[in-house]
Amino acid sequence: MPTLLVIDDDPEVLYSVERSLRSPNLRVLSAASAQEGIAQVRQQRPDAVILDVRLPDMSGLEAVELIREIDPRLPIVVITAFATTETAIEAIKRGAFEYLLKPVELQQLRDVVRQAIELSRLRHVPAVFEQDATDEPADRIVGRSPAMQAVYKAIGRVAPLDVTVLVLGESGTGKELVAQALYHHGRRCNGPFLALNCAAIPEPLLESELFGHERGAFTGADRRRIGKFEQANHGTLFLDEIGDMSLPTQAKLLRLLQEQRFDRLGGNETVESDVRVIAATNQNLEAAVAAGRFRQDLYYRLRGYTIQLPPLREHLEDLPLLVEHFMDQFNRELGKFVRCVSPATLEALAEHTWPGNVRELQNVLRHALIHATGDTLTPDLLPGDLFRGLREASSPNGDIGRLVQDLLRDGTPDVYRRVCLEVDRVVLEAALQYSRGNQVLASELLGISRNTLRAKLRTLGLVLQKQLLPESDRDDQTLPSEPTGTDGGEPAERRENAPVHS
User: CA-CA distance, 28 to 485, in Å (whole number)?
Assistant: First the structure.
């Protein structure tokens, strides 16, 4: 029978977990301190461990390392009520199987324990082939949502590994902060960390910034320059906006990643460099590869491990935490004493689409605190264009504009056709709702023939509901089954005016 060990100094937690998880198929042991838990690991050899971070005799993170010295294959689920970015990353980096926040949902805990025990079985049973907190550093990345927890776990998994990492995400999602976290939690944390925005440097100078140049290599090169790859030797180099790099520079970067050597611009000496590269972009690199703007081999080389950052609109549950974090930061920087946020302000912030993500939120809150005179953040302190953006987002034009931007950003083909179909959908649904489902009236209002209306409805997959009108007032609501032209037949308008042959 599998055995689960729960290490927590809170008697209520121990009782709740034991009562909830104990079953005829699972034995549950408990320990109230790290030392007691470590002793039980030695004696009982459990199949999985649930470990609290804050224990009376030592940190749970220290206990993780001691437990892994006893059994490096034992899955450890770390739980805590005092969640920080550093704790999440450190827990995964030190070998924890999972990281959960209190209060933990019972079903989530059951699922994680089941996965941990199954993993323990796979790790310990060989494959058989058939015979013939407060003292911790301040957070830089903020968020407790599932989307952000996934990011922390990804950082923890890949940070200790000396592999290239590609960080993807929209502008303002915090890609450089992820790069810094990878550096601080990596093997090269004692080496240099340099960051370079490839889009901010003119292309003729980018190659020199990266690889350096010799004196006389080009006009104005009056002395040798050491590039970023030499400066970051034995360290980490973060290349932001890698998608804006030109093809010739991409080729040179690819050679460096493959051979760990390069030539300075205008030089004959081959320079060796041992650098971990972390790249980031807000572009769709797969679409750029398909369009010939980005080298496929470099894309695969950079994609040693990929971390996808969610846009702010996809983890708005973190908005209060982010607001509190930035208010504390700007209170210190600006000498302000804003202590709380009104519910109306939070509601207004939550309704915004945040195209600039966390960076936009940061700028909005800085603007608000500059204008604040009291201790409460009220809606009137927010920038005026934020409310204009809310009004535009609620209008059809705002929706279509966002659709166009999303399709272009994702590299979607047939953008014009897709947008036209979406416009047709909005217009036709509105006209049919106004006409109470009467196709004749709707076609007159729209200025198109009834056959054209029906053809568009079929294309969009819209089916009218017969209960819209009383039977006596209803126009023929059944969509015709004859061809519309998309399957080889002629368009409806052409057939309508075609001559009749006997």
Answer: 67
Domain coverage including residue 343: 314-393
What is the spatial distance between Cα 160 and Cα 301, in angstroms, rounded to a whole number? 19
Max Cα–Cα distance, the chain, nearest Å: 98
Whether residue 254 sits in one domain with residue 227: yes
225-284 pLDDT, tens digit per residue, is 788 898 888 899 999 999 999 999 999 999 999 998 888 888 788 888 899 999 999 999
Distance from C-alpha of 446 to C-alpha of 458, rounded to nearest angstrom: 17
Q: How far is CA 475 from the centre of its chain?
A: 49
Query: How far, in Å, are 15, 29, 51, 113 from residue 26 at the CA level?
Result: 15, 10, 17, 10
Beta strands across the sheet bearing 76-80: 27-31, 3-7, 48-52, 76-80, 98-101
How far apart are alpha carbons 196 and 454 in whole angstroms?
56
Residue 200 lies in a domain: yes
Which structure tokens are listed for 376? Answer: 């409460």
What is the rounded CA–CA span in Å between residue 223 and residue 394? Answer: 57
In DSSP terms, 165 is beta-bridged to 278, 305
Q: Which of 202, 249, 206 is nearest to 225 (CA)?
A: 206
Is 140 part of any domain? no
DSSP strands (E only) in 202-258: 236-240
* The model's pTM: 0.67
DSSP assignment string, 52-72:
ESB-SSSBHHHHHHHHHHH-T
**For residue 150, is it within any domain?**
yes
Give the span between the Cα atoms of 405 and 388, in whole angstroms.
18
Expressed in angstroms, the distance from the first to the final Cα of the chain is: 84
**Per-residue three-class SS string for 119-154:** HHHHHHCCCCCCCCCCCCCCCCCCCCCHHHHHHHHH
State whether the Cα torsion 174-180-181-182 is positive or negative. positive
Question: For 384-439, how does the pLDDT look when each residue is reduced to its tens digit (9 = 90+)?
Answer: 766 554 444 444 455 666 677 777 766 777 778 777 877 887 888 888 888 878 88
Residues 153 and 247 in one domain: yes
